[in-house]
Amino acid sequence: MGWWLFMILVILQWNARSLIANGQEFKKFVTDLLDKPQVICVQETWLKPQLDFVIYGYTTIRNDRETGKGGGVATFVRNDVKYNLVNKGKEHESVVVRIQTGKDSIMIVNFYNPCNRLSTDTLNAVCGVTQGKTVWCGDFNAHSTIWRSKNTDINGSVIEEFIDDKNLVCVNDGKGTQYSSSHNTESAIDLTIMSTEMAGISLWEVLDQSTVGSDHYPIITRIEVEIHQDSELKTPRWRLDKADWQMFQMLSEIKCVELVNKDIRDVEEMNRKVTRAIIQTAEETIPKKTRIEQRKSVPWWNESCTIVIKKRNKALRQLKAHHTLVTLINYKRAQAVVRRTIRSAKRGYLRQFCNKNLK
Ligand SMILES: *[C@@H]1O[C@H](CO)[C@@H](O)[C@H](O)[C@H]1NC(C)=O
Ligand SMILES: *[C@@H]1O[C@H](CO)[C@@H](O)[C@H](O)[C@H]1NC(C)=O
To answer: For this UniProt entry, which residues form the secretion signal (predicted)?
Structure first.
């Protein structure tokens, strides 16, 4: 049992450059997002099997790098989303899941290319023979004028060919996804590639206010889909008391007038479109209560952590505006302070917690 709903599928992707170093800040970052992503694709987790990493409210599917340092990917699926694991790369750093949506399903490929020579065979091996709606989220370490790199390299042209072949579209808008603090340059190497039929109903956004401790920005992709949610527990609970009703009225009127002008004759279709317009408007104007308990995600978080992150993000803005040795050192220091502060807040909390429980 469950519900069929028009929803916005939210996918968050991010090259972490180590969840060991930046994972705690990332948990807080996810907790603070207004729209909880259904799926989170992280590259370069640097995790090893003996290290735990949990985001509260999500199931983790990891593919750690077995030998050598760095690398690794992890896909986190929100607990209320039905999914199955399709494939974990053995030779390649990838995790492929399929999430259930209304009439069909969407395959979400999380991929990290550690600066290797890409080939069509590699990409085919990662996604398998399966057809159907697909979204690739990953760090491809490849350049192409399609995503507005200055030039197209070999790896870029391999992806171009693959995209053509599989009827996919790269939805990147050309914005830089990775920031080099030492050169003050940005490059677009994190890509979101999806089936053509979904590209038109998707929104792609680089959240470039902060790198969350990494050198890559988080990227949010929103796709309008019909999605299956598990029964009562999962019905979105609108916070009607917090709604912007004026905006709701205005937007729904605009959308409905648009529909009337389209001269739709089929009642079923009209019904579908009106429902969708109203839900879409609600998504934009009414906040939702989420069942994912946010407190538990980072219970040890305190104001000190928030303050040092603000300082670090300010240092990043200053570095981008005036790239000098001083601003660079400032930024690096601020980054080190963030990690130290978070670590000590966590330790302090655990110590207190243990003391309380042992008495
Ligand atoms: C692309 O492939 C080449 C091998 O042809 C590799 O040496 C290079 O590192 C790759 N490019 C990037 C940006 O990783
Ligand atoms: C946050 O926690 C740390 C470690 O317990 C502590 O030293 C610091 O004073 C706390 N900050 C605030 C604002 O409570």
So the answer is: 1-21
